[in-house]
Design a protein that fits this description.
There is one protein chain. The chain has six helices and 18 strands. By secondary structure, the chain is an alpha+beta fold. The chain has a single domain, classed as Clavaminate synthase-like (Double-stranded beta-helix, 4-Layer Sandwich), CATH 3.60.130. The strands form five sheets. The chain has a seven-stranded mixed beta sheet, covered by helices on one side. A three-stranded antiparallel beta sheet has the order 14-8-16. A hairpin with a 6-residue loop joins strand 1 and strand 2. The longest helix has 15 residues. The relative contact order is 0.25. The site of succinic acid has 8 residues, from strand 16 and strand 17.
């Protein structure tokens, strides 16, 4: 196995490994250690079938049911997909799902701990996925701001009244199951205890106990800080790349910057997570 660091603070590419077959217990432990440390793992050259993808993702946890049933594989409903063919267009531009930095399903009481994609077909240029390290973004804040925000929580809803994007339309049945949850602004990673900003401007409905304008101004300030290019890893897809990311350590965003006539298709799974804990610094 060859490990190549992708940025100074996060992300690693792992090659010389075959995820189409089961891995040993030792390798599974090593991969999980690497995942907790690097938060984004890129495995090139893994053109997996859906059952192989399920098996590979299970190295890192237990698969989670897909919320949007219409974008799932009929034979393997636990596997979703991101396909250009399903996307609406406005003035010729594709309305790509996930086109602003976010962390998945943050309105769930137990949001998915990780999300993974396998690239089946990609456009000749564009359609990258970007990630930002929300742990490093927290570390870089000044001490006073850190002390203020570690005590705060935000209500995450299906679509915030100030959401910069529209979410996929859900059926009444799906909508009835959609929760809303108070989440800490700063979470503690369950494995390595590192603090990370927990932000999702599409879903955050203000901040508990704060006047609305002040709350959104703080959310915007933190979001602007966390999404600076210095915290970014930009993944340029090749067919057969498997990428897995930790939703408790990074935000990600998709890009609609490719020719809408070209086909982009990726399998997508999520892994079950637990309730998120507020970061509590050691005294
Ligand atoms: C997503 O799953 O949030 C979108 C990622 C992508 O298609 O680039």
């Amino acid at each position: 196995m060859k490990i190549t660091q992708l940025t100074p603070t996060f992300g690693a590419q792992i090659s010389n490994i075959d995820l189409s077959v089961p891995v040993t217990k030792e390798l599974k432990e090593e991969l999980n250690k690497l995942f907790a440390e690097h938060a984004v793992l890129v495995f090139p050259g893994q053109p997996l079938s859906p059952p192989q993808f399920i098996q590979a993702a299970e190295i890192f946890g237990v698969l989670m049911e897909q919320q949007i049933k219409k974008f799932t594989l009929p034979e393997y409903p636990i596997v979703g997909y991101n396909s250009t063919k399903d996307l609406p267009r406005v003035n010729g531009k594709l309305q790509v799902r996930g086109e602003n930095y976010h962390t998945d399903h943050s309105n769930d009481l137990e949001p998915p701990m990780a999300t993974s994609l396998v690239a089946v077909q990609i456009p000749s240029s564009g359609g990258d996925t970007q990630f930002v390290d929300t742990r490093k973004a927290f570390d870089d804040l000044d001490a006073d701001l850190k002390e203020t925000i570690i005590k705060l929580k935000s209500l995450h809803v299906h679509q915030s009244s100030r959401s910069p994007r529209s979410f996929a339309k859900l059926s009444n049945e799906e909508m009835a199951k959609i929760p809303q949850t108070l989440q800490p602004l700063v979470i503690e990673h369950p494995v390595n205890k590192r603090p990370a900003l927990y932000l999702n401007t599409g879903r955050m409905e203000g901040i508990e106990g704060m006047e609305i304008e002040a709350a959104y101004s703080l959310i915007d300030k933190l979001y602007k800080h966390a999404t600076q290019p210095k915290y970014e890893y930009r993944h340029k897809w090749q067919v057969g790349d498997l990428v897995i990311w930790d939703n408790r350590a990074v935000m990600h965003q998709a890009n609609a910057d490719y020719d809408p006539e070209e086909y982009r298709y990726l399998y997508r799974v999520m892994l079950k997570g637990n309730r998120l804990n507020s970061y509590r610094p050691a005294l």
